[in-house]
Amino acid sequence: xxxxxxxxxxxxxxxxxxxxxxxxxxxxxxxxxxxxxxxxxxxxxxxxxxxxxxxxxxxxxxxxxxxxxxxxxxxxxxxxxxxxxxxx
Length: 88
Fold this sequence. Notes:
Blueprint: E1 2-3, H1 5-11, H2 25-35, H3 39-42, E2 54-57, E3 60-61, E4 78-81
Parallel strand pairs: 1-4
Antiparallel strand pairs: 2-3, 2-4
């Protein structure tokens, strides 16, 4: 998993590996949010991707792969993007 923009600014981690039970983006995010305070940058109160956030699975937008139900498997690359605003 890779973080860019605001995600990186909050975690100070560019890349990490996750092991988790499950096979969907929802399962991955459940584990991610348990470890990092990032939910507000990724999902809204209705569990929809937040405006300006992007999630890619192997280079393809998760929106077109089933959203949170998108299947993921061992070795998949997940990138969570949210542009930073202003200078750092």
